[in-house]
């Protein structure tokens, strides 16, 4: 009548707690695993070897490492110009690391010229680093959005043209 219930026994309690506890971490692990599997692994950078000569534009949302010669514009996320590389054209990337030679404009959020860099052209950047020994001929301009190409809204020139027209009509009175 007044016997001890099995719920109060230490051995039984541990079994009850461990059984529900085991599936819950498994579910949490499975839930954590799925989001981790959803993002794809970042693909490796595309490499243009030293013996490669490209004539034309290159455009990617990924990373490019250039060791050869490119005659044309390059657009990428991360662009690394190797020591033996030569680029003749405009370079646009979020991150630009120059170890070689560029003849043309460079636009990037972060631009870095290493000691072996040779740049002949303008650099438009948000952040820039120029190491001692780098050769640079051109102008440097900081912009909050250098990837946009420095394009200004069309409304500004229209507003400036409207003001002289108003002044001209007031002179006729």
Automatic annotation (TrEMBL):
Against InterPro entries, the record matches this protein to: BacA/B (IPR007607)
Q: Which residues form a coiled coil?
A: none
Pfam families tied to this protein: Bactofilin (PF04519)
Q: Enumerate the residue ranges of region (Disordered).
A: 1-45, 135-173
Q: Where is the composition biased (Basic and acidic residues)?
A: 1-18
According to the UniProt entry, which residue ranges have a biased composition of type Low complexity?
Answer: 34-45, 155-173
Q: Which residues cross the membrane?
A: none
Family stated for the protein in its record: Belongs to the bactofilin family.
Q: What is this protein called?
A: Protein CcmA, bactofilin family
**What is the originating organism of this protein?**
Antarctobacter heliothermus
